[in-house]
Structure formats: structure tokens, C-alpha cells
Amino acid sequence: MGKQAAERRLDDSEAVAIARNIRISPQKLNVIAGMIRGQSAEKALATLTFSRRRIADTVKKALESAIANAENNHQLDVDRLFVKEAFVGKSFKMKRFRPRARGRVGKIEKPFAHLTVVVREREEQN
After folding, report:
1. What predicted TM-score, i.e. pTM, was given to this entire model?
2. Which domains does the chain have, with CATH numbers?
3. What sign does the dihedral 27-28-29-35 (CA atoms) show?
4. Rounded Cα distance, 3 and 78, in Å
5. Distance between CA atoms of 35 and 68, rounded to whole angstroms?
6. CA angle at residue 59 from 54 to 62, to 5 degrees?
7. What are the angstrom distances between the C-alpha of 48 and each of 3, 58, 64, 95, 106?
8. For 1-34, how does the pLDDT look when each residue is reduced to its tens digit (9 = 90+)?
């Protein structure tokens, strides 16, 4: 008598990977997500491999996970995958304080973010 299984939110030709609580601000992470949005999976991996941004390795792991999910869980063709969506959400902020002059305090916020990568299989060209 458990709960009903939730309907799959994605199409049959899509797979998703979610990386949660990444230690970077959502704005900075969205710059990297925007770089790979719409690219083929192979080209997006190459872009992330040679990116000089610190967080590119974490985004690459999420993309590789989405590709592996597509291949192993949904039997999609890896050569025809492209990044349909790559979006960023806010997570929590760690709040820290640093002593400043004359008894004051400087507030430091260390933001975290969530990353969702959706890959989709391209339809065959006729």
C-alpha cells in the first residue's frame, strides 16, 4: 500500500544528472552551464576539459554522469546526445564573520549551488 510511482518527467529520449551543493556562487556556475548549453555531448566534454575555470571539473563530472545515465539506464546512443538543458539553482549559504577595525564585523557569505544537466538524443536526419 505504498505511494504511487511518480510519472517520469522527461521524454524517453532524455536523461538527467543533478549535482547538489557545489561550493560556488550560482552566477559563476551559470557561466559554465551556459557554455555547454545546446552543444553536442562530445563537444561539451572537450569544452569543459580545456576550460580554465576551477568549477569546470565538477560540471564535467555531472555531464559524464548524465551521459552514463542515458547509455546505461535509457539505452540511448551516446554519439547522438546533446546538452538540452543545463541550469543552476541556489542552495544554502554558509555565513561566516571576520573581525574588523573598531569592534565591527565583516559578514562573509559562502554560497552553494545545484546543477542540473539534461541530455537528449537527436532525432535522425532523413
Report:
1. 0.90
2. 14-121 (3.90.470.10)
3. positive
4. 34
5. 21
6. 150
7. 40, 9, 11, 30, 35
8. 788 988 878 888 999 999 999 999 999 999 999 9
